[in-house]
């Protein structure tokens, strides 16, 4: 419903000429538009979570629109300097990607190269070195992908519960159960990955096939290196994708990220 309302509102603004007026205004000229993306699907991930993952076809359309609109796509660091010095060119845009999933390397980056658009990649490093699917998101994806089957939580969490996954609410609660179990037991990354295998088995999903496609994996170190050599501005996004409020823990998180970059 919310998505439809947004589409109607945007369509109305476009028809009324509001976009054209803003596009040519001094207000727009003095501002930097930052397009912040997460993923570009390898398979059907955009159907699972369209708020985080975009199909390559839609992403290409967005890049074509930037070109057609005459936007100036700047490296993010340069754009920030020019923003604060009041020296931005017309229709300034910067593009960023968060997390550093493999699909950026396989899908989005080749499209960006076609358009010769610079990009900043914010990389979280733990799953770069432990190169398996990211626990929270792969569990969510599997629950969605296997939604036609009931789920027995007992082999995964030890709780006797049969869950219908046909709608969003029960899927969200099942995900919360699995995440709470992993946190409560302080499972290691390897132990959590084993739970993911059990979940895939329960839902009759070929986990080995997902691993082979690298769905919801992060980049490997050698892939990060190739991207950096190809002009991608790679920046830190913490080690475990978290920002502790405690200063000491936060500094340790950043320090671990820097150490991981150095490997």
CATH topology of the largest domain: TIM Barrel
By DSSP, the count of extended strands is 9
As residue ranges, the low-confidence spans are 18-22
What gap, in angstroms, lies between the N and C termini?
A: 46 Å
CATH class of the largest domain: Alpha Beta
Q: In terms of structural class, how would the helical and strand content be classed?
A: alpha/beta
N-to-C series of helices and strands = HHHEEHEHEHEHEHHEHEHHHHEH
Number of domains: 2
Number of helices: 15
Which superfamily, in CATH terms, is the homologous superfamily of the largest domain? Answer: Glycoside hydrolase/deacetylase
Rg computed from alpha carbons, rounded to a whole number of angstroms: 21 Å
CATH 2nd-level architecture of the largest domain: Alpha-Beta Barrel
| Strand fraction | 5-15%
Fraction in helix:
55-70%
What would your notes on this structure say?
The longest helix has 17 residues, at 168-184. The protein contains 15 helices and 9 strands. By secondary structure, the protein is of the alpha/beta class. Mean pLDDT is 88; it is low at 18-22. Helix 5 packs parallel to helix 7 (102-115) and helix 9 runs antiparallel to helix 11. Strands 1, 4, 5, 6 and 9 form a 5-stranded parallel beta sheet that branches. It folds into 2 domains: 32-128 and 217-262, Glycoside hydrolase/deacetylase (TIM Barrel, Alpha-Beta Barrel); 134-212.
């Amino acid at each position: 419903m919310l998505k439809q309302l947004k589409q109607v509102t945007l369509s109305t603004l476009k028809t009324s000429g509001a976009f054209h007026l803003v596009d040519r205004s001094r207000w727009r000229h003095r501002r930097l538009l930052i397009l912040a993306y997460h993923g570009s699907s390898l398979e059907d991930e955009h159907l699972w979570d369209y708020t985080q993952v975009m199909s390559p076809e839609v992403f290409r359309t967005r890049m074509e629109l930037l070109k057609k609109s005459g936007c100036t796509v700047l490296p993010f660091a340069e754009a920030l300097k020019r923003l604060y010095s009041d020296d931005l060119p017309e229709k300034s845009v910067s593009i960023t990607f968060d997390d550093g999933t493999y699909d950026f390397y396989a899908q989005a980056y080749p499209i960006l190269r076609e358009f010769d658009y610079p990009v900043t990649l914010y990389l979280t490093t733990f799953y770069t070195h432990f190169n398996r699917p990211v626990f929270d998101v792969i569990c969510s994806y599997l629950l969605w992908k296997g939604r036609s089957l009931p789920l027995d939580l007992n082999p995964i969490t030890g709780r006797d519960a049969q869950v219908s996954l046909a709608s969003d609410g029960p899927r969200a609660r099942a995900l919360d159960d699995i995440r709470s179990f992993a946190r409560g037991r302080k499972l290691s990354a390897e132990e959590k990955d084993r739970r993911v295998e059990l979940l895939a088995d329960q839902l009759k999903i070929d986990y080995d096939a997902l691993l082979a496609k690298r769905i919801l994996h992060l980049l490997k170190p050698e892939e990060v290196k190739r991207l950096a050599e190809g002009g991608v501005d790679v920046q830190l996004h913490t080690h475990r994708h978290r920002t502790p409020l405690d200063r000491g823990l936060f500094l340790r998180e950043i320090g671990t990220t820097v150490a991981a970059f150095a490997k």
